């Protein structure tokens, strides 16, 4: 891009907009209804963590889950973006983890409270290197996987998404203007499960990218 380098989007302090329950198999494994409209929530830029730094377990959870997701990096901002023009707003992608304190989320759900502490804590958004748009010609048909300590836990394909990337960009931008450097997490396929301190997480997008993160104790 121009003055700033989009390949280091996590340093910009832009929004992270997350889509929930965008894969029917994941909605079902947590006994949630399959949505008829996208479910949105946010993470702050302080949630970003890149390879070389650990994922920290918040002190208040005893059930931290991994969710592997395709992230879409916005290159050109806009409001009320047409679905037919949505892909022109994409600069590239990143493999992302939507780390989730599942016990806290369950508590929030039962009380009808927002998910902020379950989803938006420090290091809740591990990201891979930036992947330029040309390296994923069809983002609606790529395979994602995640292993914990070398054991496969998640394996899915973005073709299983309920709402497509162009639809999501258009839908989100009707309510929340998108800006250059924003990241959209597009939801997770089934297989989410708990991680413990000292676990090693590895994830990848087919032959495009792999990344690894260690889970660590949070010093208080
Ligand atoms: O916490 C959840 O189950 C919702 C979510 O983020 C997803 O489906 O990716
Ligand atoms: Mg998620």
Automatic annotation (TrEMBL):
<protein>
    <recommendedName>
        <fullName>Oxaloacetate tautomerase FAHD1, mitochondrial</fullName>
        <ecNumber>3.7.1.5</ecNumber>
        <ecNumber>4.1.1.112</ecNumber>
        <ecNumber>5.3.2.2</ecNumber>
    </recommendedName>
</protein>
<dbReference type="GO" id="GO:0019752">
    <property type="term" value="P:carboxylic acid metabolic process"/>
</dbReference>
<dbReference type="GO" id="GO:0050163">
    <property type="term" value="F:oxaloacetate tautomerase activity"/>
</dbReference>
<feature type="domain" description="Fumarylacetoacetase-like C-terminal">
    <location>
        <begin position="15"/>
        <end position="215"/>
    </location>
</feature>
<dbReference type="GO" id="GO:0018773">
    <property type="term" value="F:acetylpyruvate hydrolase activity"/>
</dbReference>
<dbReference type="Pfam" id="PF01557">
    <property type="entry name" value="FAA_hydrolase"/>
</dbReference>
<dbReference type="InterPro" id="IPR036663">
    <property type="entry name" value="Fumarylacetoacetase_C_sf"/>
</dbReference>
<comment type="similarity">
    <text>Belongs to the FAH family.</text>
</comment>
<dbReference type="GO" id="GO:0005739">
    <property type="term" value="C:mitochondrion"/>
</dbReference>
<dbReference type="GO" id="GO:0047621">
    <property type="term" value="F:acylpyruvate hydrolase activity"/>
</dbReference>
<keyword id="KW-0479">Metal-binding</keyword>
<dbReference type="InterPro" id="IPR011234">
    <property type="entry name" value="Fumarylacetoacetase-like_C"/>
</dbReference>
<dbReference type="GO" id="GO:0046872">
    <property type="term" value="F:metal ion binding"/>
</dbReference>
<dbReference type="GO" id="GO:0008948">
    <property type="term" value="F:oxaloacetate decarboxylase activity"/>
</dbReference>
